[in-house]
Amino acid sequence: MSIYGDYIKSVIRTVPDWPQEGVNFRDITPLLQNSSAFRKLIDSFVHRYQELDLDAIAAIDARGFIIGAPLAYELGCSFVPVRKKGKLPFKTISETYSLEYGHSSVELHSDAFQKGDRILVMDDLIATGGTMLAAAKLIQRSGGQVVETATIVDLPELGGSRRIREEGHNVFAVCSFLESE
Ligand SMILES: O=P(O)(O)OC[C@H]1O[C@H](OP(=O)(O)OP(=O)(O)O)[C@H](O)[C@@H]1O
Ligand SMILES: Nc1ncnc2[nH]cnc12
């Protein structure tokens, strides 16, 4: 958790039963609308990653892009999009995974990384961990080294962050929510 974790958490809204009954959707739009909170969020990531000599931020479609792009700009490293199926125009590699609600695939351009590149994988939220793990697999398949996986929100009771750690990756979350919160 970052030093701003409690504050960032306080500006994330919970929308019950969206997009389907039983899901507590953690909505980051109030955080993005709050310029001071958004700056503190990006600063938390800059502070953690500025000395880690990253080559690229691999950010996951779609909300991962919102945090990955300013971080890459600030750190002076590459920005690489990991996109939902069918969105990337060049030669791609792909991974399919299950979600808290449904299935999906993510894709990466096959020339996105050089062998050994040091990569941070970013998304807005970890639930079951399927999306983040699929992205990490794509990066490893393309020769990149996953330095860490980073997110704004972890939902630890859904087991995703534990699963990602069990696969040998570091996980950094700015804040976390229990189902009861
Ligand atoms: O840990 P997981 O169970 O894989 O779930 C986390 C993913 O779910 C959400 O994206 P979503 O698939 O809703 O897509 P979107 O960003 O395009 O809205 C979220 O932004 C993560 O990418
Ligand atoms: N509970 C949740 N809130 C926001 N995004 C999600 N993606 C998967 N589960 C989610």
From TrEMBL:
Gene source species: Larsenimonas rhizosphaerae
Domain named Phosphoribosyltransferase: residues: 52-157
Name of this chain's protein: Adenine phosphoribosyltransferase
Matches recorded under Pfam families: Pribosyltran
Role played: Catalyzes a salvage reaction resulting in the formation of AMP, that is energically less costly than de novo synthesis.
Keywords for this protein: Cytoplasm, Glycosyltransferase, Purine salvage, Transferase
Gene: apt
InterPro entries: Ade_phspho_trans, PRTase-like, PRTase_dom, UPRTase/APRTase
Highest taxon of source: Bacteria
